[in-house]
Write a structure and sequence with these properties.
The protein is about 50% helix and about 10% strand. It is mainly alpha-helical and about 475 residues long. A hairpin with a 5-residue loop joins strand 3 and strand 4. The longest helix has about 30 residues.
Length: about 475
């Protein structure tokens, strides 16, 4: 595993040229550039640290016994040693090791060569010439490494890491998931699609991409994972030293959905009321959730039908045929983890299931100027397209459907092409800062694959003189079932 420090030196030089500058006086573009350059230094340094960490792990293995580096330095493991040096956590050290091992495997091709596959070659000889006459010409026969499907993904992840396009946390997400899926082309195609969307996203958003690729690559294993999550469901209550009670719940997505939907909706209503009457509600969102939770249980104590709790709407990203056959993946508004069709079929008696073919019952999705507010069917269509707030990706329960061209000022129609899901904060920011919203073709659409429409945000010239459109909504951070099936 060759250590290359050129990217680190280049990134450090870009920061060091600003030595002595007053950060508080930097113009907006220069401050953003400084943040970007400093982040590049961190990513490049993490590559070096990951390579060294992986080698520390190798030299501290159990086979080395007390002669291992970690043991000789007085630590139980390489992770503890790395955490003590970096001042970070054990989990962070583990991610460094995982990335370093991935880089090493991708560089050396360990475990990624196809069994029994060979090739013929000769330095300076063309491939056709070598194939045509290697026996007569006496060309040397040698093994040609051919990466397996997962090996191809690892090599591409390693390239993204080395180029600074993704960091250690993101590469670790891919590395762990790749260890749990079959080594087949279906896996390769799904994970490469997820990787292509990863640069520029936060780690929690990439985690959703990886989950969807993982579920698509091995549906059976995903159902088994859901079964384990259901078996591990739990709620614990513990008395704290100060007299409060700590309540901790571990719920699978289908069980958590109605809880999250109710709490999110309650907080949203309280926030809207507070904006209408400033200062009327001093509670934090966390306090609002606590009050809501207590109120729900108070209501159930007096309710004649205590099992008639709040139901959630499950928006299924698949056709009804796929739902009926149990093939495909579904999604619950506001929940990050995809859900198997089989789990959704079992839950259909307790949840309203909406197939992806919205408008299938004759709902009119485009209403022109006939109605002021977007209908429930239109909102479901916007959730399908935007996934939540098209700007900050907040869950749908936080959002309202807004007219891109205003209803009153611009005579904007109540149509899907003129609608966008935005949370209140982002809605105000888009209008106040002069951003333009447009609905255009999905960037992944091709001649043979129509992925529908996507939301784009065009910055004002004060933010970007070139006004380069920025992709928003689900198209930016999610892998739809249509994209995965197309692979």
């Amino acid at each position: 595993m060759t250590l290359t420090t050129a990217p680190l030196r280049a990134a450090a030089d870009a920061v060091c040229v600003r030595d002595g500058a007053d950060v508080t006086m930097l113009p907006h573009p220069q401050l953003l550039a400084l943040v970007s350059d400093a982040a590049a230094v961190c990513k490049s340094a993490d590559v070096v640290l990951a390579q060294a960490s992986a080698e520390l792990e190798r030299r501290s293995g159990a086979e080395n016994g007390k002669a291992g580096i970690a043991s000789r330095e007085g630590f139980r493991s390489a992770k503890e040693l790395i955490a003590s040096v970096t001042g970070g956590t054990i989990a962070e050290a583990q991610r460094l090791i995982e990335t370093g091992l991935l880089l090493a495997d991708a560089g050396a091709g360990l475990g990624d060569t196809g069994a029994g596959e060979t090739g013929v070659g000769d330095a300076g000889v063309g491939a056709e010439e070598a194939d045509a006459g290697h026996e007569d010409a006496g060309h040397e026969r040698f093994e040609v490494p051919r990466l397996s499907p997962i090996g191809e993904v690892k090599a591409e992840v390693a390239r993204y890491v080395n180029e600074g396009r993704i960091g250690v946390d993101v590469s670790s997400l891919f590395s762990r998931a790749l260890g749990e899926v079959p080594d087949v082309e279906r896996t390769r195609d799904a994970f490469l699609k997820a990787l292509a969307k990863a640069p520029g996203l936060a780690a929690h958003q990439v985690r959703q991409l990886v989950w969807r690729a993982q579920a698509h690559a091995d549906p059976q294993a995903w159902q088994e994972r859901e079964a384990r999550q259901y078996e591990n469901r739990s709620v614990t209550l513990r008395d704290e030293a100060d007299g409060t009670v700590l309540l901790t719940a571990r719920l699978p997505p289908l069980m958590a959905a109605p809880v999250k939907a109710l709490l999110d909706a309650g907080v949203r209503r309280a926030m809207q009321a507070r904006r209408d009457v400033p200062g009327s509600d001093p509670r934090s969102p966390w306090q609002m959730r606590a009050d809501l939770l207590s109120d729900v249980f108070k209501h159930m104590l007096d309710c004649d039908r205590p099992t008639s709790g709040v139901k959630t709407t499950v928006v299924v990203r698949m056709t009804r045929e796929e739902l009926e056959t149990g093939l495909g993946l579904g999604e619950i508004d506001g929940m990050a983890q995809p859900v198997s069709a089989e789990a959704l079929r079992r839950a259909a008696v307790d949840a309203e299931v909406i197939p992806v073919v919205l408008g299938g019952k004759g709902e009119v999705l485009d209403l022109g100027r006939a109605m002021r507010l977007f209908t429930p069917a239109q909102r479901l269509a916007l959730v399908e397209r935007d996934g939540g707030c098209a700007w900050c990706h907040a869950p749908p329960s936080w959002c309202a459907a807004h007219h891109i061209e205003w209803w009153s000022r611009d005579d904007g129609p109540t149509d899907l092409s003129n609608g966008v899901l935005l949370c209140t904060r982002c809605h105000q920011r888009v209008h106040d800062d002069g951003w333009t919203v447009e609905v255009r073709e999905h960037p992944g659409s091709t001649d043979g694959l129509n992925l529908g429409a996507a939301v784009w945000f065009i910055p004002p010239r004060t933010v970007d003189p070139n006004q380069v459109p920025r992709l928003g909504g689900r198209a930016k951070y999610d892998l739809t079932e249509r994209e995965l099936v197309a692979s």
